[in-house]
TrEMBL record:
InterPro entries: Sec66 (IPR018624). Keywords: Membrane, Transmembrane, Transmembrane helix. The chain crosses the membrane at residues 20-38. GO terms for cellular component: Sec62/Sec63 complex. Signal peptide: none annotated. It comes from Scheffersomyces spartinae. Pfam families: Sec66. The lineage of its organism: Eukaryota, Fungi, Dikarya, Ascomycota, Saccharomycotina. This is Translocation protein S66. GO terms for biological process: post-translational protein targeting to membrane, translocation. The gene is SEC66. It comes from the Eukaryota.
Amino acid sequence: MSETEAKAEAIADVSVLTPILYLGFLVTTFIVFTFQYRKRRLAKIVQRKPLLKENYAAEIYQQLKSLSTPDKPHDRVLKAALIRRASDAVLRSIKLRELEPGLNKLYQEGLIGEDIHKQFEIESKVLELELKEILQECDIYKKGWAPTFFPVSQEVCMNEALRRRLKIMNEREEAFAELWQIESTAASELKKLTGTEVDSKNKKKPKKKN
């Protein structure tokens, strides 16, 4: 083989290997970039404040269920804790449904970042898994309990929401009554029932006898 032919073969080998090496470099760079980008985005999502509050009802139920035999609570206690957990999950699902249209609109208009939208999707998936787990726990205690379990949990959720609203209304009424130095409806009703007067600081004063 002549020297010219050897040089031609070497050039041919280099010309074949160059695109392969270049393609391999591009693929490796893309993989590293994708990994780092996902890692940074996940770190941002983890550090960001959750859209919903901590799920204390689920933590309490898991702690009660994990107790050993001597300290294990009665099944009625566990059922009540499961209903409380389900009512909290119902409330969280309602809040997410209320947030969804606004977040989607803001995301489409570019007013919020992808990390917030992704966080909303993750919390929605977590809540979906939470409801499935509650359904499985429900079947453990009693077969066929699910059709009546979730309506009861929804009723508990609505009753608690109603009590919170009534409490806020009473607190606002007392605050405005103290601000304008007038007698609130609750104080007026209490005076009618007990025959005592209630001042702006909710201290009872007995009526003076003539």
